[in-house]
Amino acid sequence: MFFVIFYGLIVFVGFYLIIKCTIHRKKGAHIDATLTGFQDERGTQYPVFKFNYEGEELILPGGVPANPSKFKYQEGDTVRIVFNPSNRKFVDIEGSATEYIYGIAAIVLGGFLLYYQLHKMGIF
Q: What pTM was estimated for this model as a whole?
């Protein structure tokens, strides 16, 4: 029974990620920002963006890690971002589908494992 709950939780997390990302992008401000470099956080690289929001200059990291050598943008490039004023920890790159991919992967994986576990228990 533990596995059924755990796999159901994985499916729930997938839906949560997709809904959260959709709301964040709908409510957020779509702003042009400049890629200023990358920030290392516990061995993971995050892009850092500089932009103005309502007269205030902000420098925030992106919410998704990126490999600087393979990143689509170079330092100094203008990038369209989504900034949610209620969350001043990170920004998203407009058009990025990474969060959606994580959510879909969690739903598919959790759903498959949930079905397999229920089948193994004789329910399906």
A: 0.74
